[in-house]
Specification:
Length: 340
């Protein structure tokens, strides 16, 4: 499956739709069914699916294998060999914007986007004059932007079908407890050793109070007991009282909480938002209901820009005309758009 996905890094025509991408990769039948059904039909033990794979889908997407489509379910198992940037992966995208030489307008609220009879796009920003553009790339979930979009040939409901998001609570904390308390998990056997990484499933008699709990770092300060940095993912806010129950009274130091709509709900589907809702408008986040990761959003961005360039200039990001794309397979480390 990963080898098939890597075809997206080869020189190719831009895809006009996510349906076209799914079809070219032969993934359409995989997004059409739940993870649990697909794996069962392909000989995977239901116990393995609901206890191991569901643990991964819950920590990665906050969804169970009976609810999430099979392609994304298997994406949850594909993190082997993943890398991250010290200080945060966000630095990659910040640097891209800086190196591009583009003008950036941070903390700017776009209120209205209107296409005139000439085909130009009029963009209204809060507290500023209207700007006019030849083309616009929308790179945020449409529902969350609050932008009013108007164009003569644009059907908003068809172009941007509703996509619900998982509201996630992340709790970071420090604790002197080397492990969570056994009494939280086994009241009748409180001395039971508890691991430092705990993933959950929905197949028990009660719904777990968190999706995952992971010890990340051990900090040793002179003359003080060791401290541990812990991260918890949960569907609801966890209270200070609950944390004391989990780690022990007086063991929790600082606590930081964050909540947001972290990822789209990904039910089985064969229909997707439009990559090009109308002439001159391109939608990067159309890719999200297909596969939702930071990496695939870079693919979606490349595809949107490639499509825009073909529409306006008849050539893609690497300068190819429609009939000039090479047929030979490029090396495994080749990335279209970077290694033209």
């Amino acid at each position: 499956m990963v080898d098939t996905y890597l075809k997206l890094y080869q020189p190719r025509h831009p895809y006009p739709s996510i349906t076209a991408i799914a079809s070219s990769l032969n993934f359409t039948h995989i997004t059409a069914v739940p993870t649990s059904k697909y794996l069962t039909e392909n000989g995977v033990s239901p116990l393995f699916t609901h206890e191991l794979i569901e643990a991964a889908t819950r920590v990665n997407y906050g969804q169970n294998v009976d609810d999430i489509h099979a392609l994304e379910g298997m994406v949850s198992m594909a993190a082997n060999g993943a890398h991250s940037v010290a200080g945060g992966n966000w630095q990659v995208f910040e640097r891209w914007a800086k190196e591009s030489g583009a003008k950036t307008h941070l903390k700017t609220t776009v209120q209205h986007l209107r296409q005139s009879n000439s085909g130009k796009w009029h963009l209204a920003v809060e507290g500023a004059d209207e700007k006019i553009y030849d083309a616009v790339v929308l790179a945020a979930p449409y529902k969350s932007t609050g932008i009013k979009i108007e164009a003569a040939d644009l059907n908003l409901e068809k172009a941007f079908p509703p996509v619900d998001y998982v509201h996630l609570h992340v709790t970071l904390l420090s604790t002197t407890a080397e492990h969570p308390q056994g009494s939280y998990f086994f009241p009748s056997a409180p001395e039971t050793p508890i691991p430092q990484t705990i993933l959950t499933t929905s197949s028990g008699s009660t719904e777990p109070e968190f999706n995952s709990l992971t010890y990340h770092e051990r900090i040793q300060r002179a003359g003080q007991p060791p401290e541990y940095i812990v991260k918890i993912f949960s569907k609801e806010r966890v209270t200070d009282e609950w944390l004391e129950k989990l780690f022990g009274a007086g063991t929790v130091g600082w606590t930081r909480r964050k909540e947001w709509d972290a990822y789209p709900r990904l039910p089985p589907t064969t229909t997707f938002p439009s990559v090009k809702p109308t002439d001159g408008l391109y939608y990067v986040n159309a890719f999200e209901p297909f596969i939702s990761t930071m990496e695939t959003e870079t693919i979606a961005s490349l595809n949107a820009v490639d499509l825009l360039l073909h529409d306006r200039y008849g050539r893609g990001v690497c300068g190819y005309k429609s009939d000039e794309y090479p047929n030979e397979v490029k090396p495994a480390d080749f990335a279209y758009g970077w290694d033209c």
